[in-house]
Fold this sequence. Notes:
51% helix, 9 helices, globular, mainly alpha
Amino acid sequence: MFTWHPGNDLSNETIGEVLSTMVQPDQQEDIPEEVRMVENPEHWFYRMLEIPGGSTLARHDPLHVLLEQGTHINAEAFVLGLSMGADEKAQQWHFSFYIWWVTHKTPQPFVFTQEAVDAYWLGVKTAEEMGLKNIHLVPLEEMHNQKINEVRKQMGINMEYLRHLYAQHKVLQTK
């Protein structure tokens, strides 16, 4: 697993331009089975439990760009928490199960530390506070030619609010 950060103030770039800077991005098959089981909606285990907010990497990676969050485990946890928290089908047991899974069943380097757990819960809370709904359903894999600021507006992502949040919370200062 590599660490990458998309940078800040990306409003005038396209999603694809920033994604092209990812060094050796993981392919879906490179992700351990234990992770795909609870994050990939194409996995039978995920479908059986109806875990909220999941998406393929092609849809998930652009979220990192839109949120200006890299691939550090805390940033990953925040992005996942925000995506799951924005899912209108999410229930408390989904969040609790997911945290149990990523702290007990997930292999290194994907296992969540306490800081990552805190970042995850901050993502869940932030989705609610910003009023985000079902962002995991937005076909971001088809929007690589669109400007980042346009997609943020469409999705209701408030970067002023997020940058203030990032400055306040050590677990999200991962550059």
